[in-house]
Amino acid sequence: MTCSSACTLALLATLCLHLFVSPSQSGDCCLRYSMKKYPCHKMKTYSIQSMMSSCDINAVIFHTMKGRYICADPAQKWTLDKRVSLHRSMKVSSTASLTLPRFLA
């Protein structure tokens, strides 16, 4: 085997190894939507997943009190309702903390 073909083979092997060992792009992405609807009181917050961030689907990711993640279809009405409800509860808690007297804060 000549030096150039050995170098080419080593380069190809390195590239293949890099492709298989590198972290998957969908590692932190929702791959499908949850079919189950969860009560809002079990939700802590949410985040938005978009296809622009190298994920396969757009999704709303609800974060539960137990540290779990629920992938929801952003086009569904219940998803929007949960987001609105979470915004209201976050506004109430932030407003309450702002209106506390100084000696209680």
Automatic annotation (TrEMBL):
Tagged with keyword Disulfide bond: yes
Principal location class: secreted
GO biological process, one term: inflammatory response
One Pfam family in the UniProt entry: IL8
CC annotations in GO: extracellular space
Signal peptide: 1-26
GO molecular function: chemokine activity
Annotated protein name in UniProt: Chemokine (C-C motif) ligand 20b
Species whose genome carries this gene: Scleropages formosus (Asian bonytongue)
